Amino acid sequence: MLLQKDICGKLLERCFFEETLLVKRSNSMTNSGSNRKPTGKIGPITINLEDKTAEFQPLQFPKGKAKIEEFIFKFFIKGLGKAGRTFYKIVSYPTQNQENDFDFTLETEFGDEYLDLMEVAPLEKIGGSYEAASSSYNHGEMADWVWSKLISKSKKYGSASTPHIHLLLYSTDWRFRLSEGVIRLLAFWAITREHCFKTIIYFVPDDATHDEAKIISPCDHDLFKGYDEEAARSRKSLIGNPEKIRQEGNGSFSIPLGKNSQIS
Question: Is 260 among the domain residues?
Answer without folding.
Answer: no
